[in-house]
Amino acid sequence: MSLTLFEEARLNKLDPASMAAQFAIARSSMVFNFLPFFDRTDFQFQETYDTEDARASFRALNEELSEGSEDTAELQFSVATFGDKAQVDRKILQAKGSTSFNNKKAQKSFGVGVLFNENFIKGDQTSDPREFNGLQSIMQNQVLATQTLDGATGTGDALSLLLLDEAIQAVRNPGIIFCSKALARKFWAAGRSTTVAGFVNYQPNDANPTGAGLGAAITFYNGIPIVPLAGSFNRDDILPFDETKPGGSGGNQTSLYIARLGSDGLYGAQLGNIQANDFGNVQGSVFNKWDIEWSAGVGLAHPLAICRVAGILDAPIVA
User: Fold this and answer.
1) If you average pLDDT over every residue of the chain, what do you get?
2) CA distance 297 to 291
């Protein structure tokens, strides 16, 4: 059963310290509202997928079935371990109480979520082997180049709804769009423009039963929620306009990612739950100590579960 971090914290009956930490992490990014997590049993894991749909065949009466073709390949992934710690002098606790130290624990836990969020897109083990690979690295190194789309201009183009529709069709059962805050605002503007998307009707969605669409707290395009990714201290630095599309030039573009979520698509991977340890007053020390640690990463069950639209300029969305 796939659960988001919020659902895990509510249903898995974690110890109080770990539950508080998990809720703080879940509040750190909208990713954790949608991304399901699955437990893995090793730091390295793989997904086997079909490179082509299995081929069945007809048979005549009194004829044996022929075994159809089935070609497979593997995607390789890993989880990374990261965390933080805090301590406070026992006399400070005695004099001021635990509120300040509890707030510090919450801030540290929030920071663990921020680090996952930053690496969710840009994590790259070639630059730091302690990280897990994020979506950009996975797309560049393991997913077919046909799952990355862009406009015709080598130096980038304004995002067109026609190209976005093509990218949506490139994903089997798409369920989410990840982008920057700046690009999400361009969707809001497009929704107010009758020449671009103002005429589009948005239908109710499982994640949005009221049927609210463009302009709502969660924006939907073609029935798919658009989730903006914010970085540390709410900065818009996860997918800034500093990319260069594959084979292009400029360094002034961004990307968005469309994915199917779940065990047959994009998911979060972890070695057990988030672990927060409240040691109290450590023997032989004047400090009360606490730490938090999480082993987590990203997995993808099939290349057709994701598509990247690259080479997007800082310009209004066009039809």
Assistant:
1) 91
2) 20
Among residues 78, 7, 21, 111, the alpha carbon closest in space to that of 295 is found at 78
Query: Dihedrals φ, ψ of 169, to 5°?
Result: -70, -20
Least confident of 47-61, 157-171, 282-296: 47-61
CB contact at 8 A, 241 and 253: yes
Q: How many CA atoms are closer than 13 Å to the CA of 198, on its beta-carbon side? A: 5
pLDDT digits (tens, 9 = 90+) for 33-54: 899 999 999 999 999 999 988 8
* Complete domains list, the chain, with CATH: 5-51+74-312 (3.90.1690)
First to last CA, the chain: 39
Query: Residue 5 region, left (φ>0) first, then alpha (ψ -120 to 50), else beta?
Result: alpha
Q: Is the dihedral of CA 242, 266, 298, 291 positive or negative?
A: positive
DSSP structure class, residue 145: G
pTM for the whole thing?
A: 0.91
Locate 251 and state its tokens. Answer: 């360094």
41 in helix, strand or coil?
A: coil
- What is the mean pLDDT of the segment spanning 300-313? 98
| Residue 208: predicted pLDDT | 47
Which tops the pLDDT comparison, 59 or 14? 59
d(CA 106, CA 20): 8
Alpha carbons within 13 angstroms on the beta-carbon side of residue 223 total 9
Tens of pLDDT, residue by residue over 112-122, are 999 999 999 99
Neighbours of 85 (CB within 10 A): 13
